[in-house]
Design goal:
By secondary structure, the protein is α+β, with helices and mostly antiparallel strands. It has one domain. It has two helices and three strands, in the order ααβββ. Strands 1-2-3 form a three-stranded antiparallel sheet, with helices on one face. β2 and β3 form a beta hairpin. The protein starts with a helix and ends in a 6-residue tail after the last strand.
Length: about 120
């Protein structure tokens, strides 16, 4: 009987350890995805700066690129600190909010890109 109780305790502790690592991995995966997607969206947007005719077009292109790369579900808020298609400037912060275990989690990622030389 003593061995059965010890075995049960070991199994429960093992399951709790697996759940804890799973939660840490999920948070890390979302954070990495957000950072990677924002970086790629900024890069893809800056590659097409010669095609824009306004700052609003540049912002819309960034949003389109970001949403195309995001796989995880969550509410996304985009804050523009600077957008200038003529000078090649894009300074943006993306805030992602999602539910995990009944709690609201928020992650932020801010990227700035400035083109040093722009071809016309």
């Amino acid at each position: 009987m003593k061995n059965a109780i010890i075995g049960l305790i070991v199994v429960v502790l093992g399951l709790l350890t697996i759940v804890a690592f799973s939660k840490m991995s999920s948070t890390s995966t979302r954070d990495t995805e957000l950072s990677t997607c924002v970086s790629e969206a900024v890069k893809n947007t800056m590659d097409g700066t010669s095609e824009f005719h306004s700052d609003a077009e540049m912002a819309q292109d960034f949003e389109r690129n970001l949403k195309a790369g995001m796989n995880s579900k969550g509410k996304i808020k985009i804050i523009y600190y600077g957008v200038d298609y003529q000078k090649g400037l894009l300074d943006v912060e993306v805030v992602q909010t999602h539910q995990m275990d009944g709690k609201t989690k928020t992650m932020k990622c801010r990227k700035t890109s400035v083109l040093e030389e722009k071809e016309r």
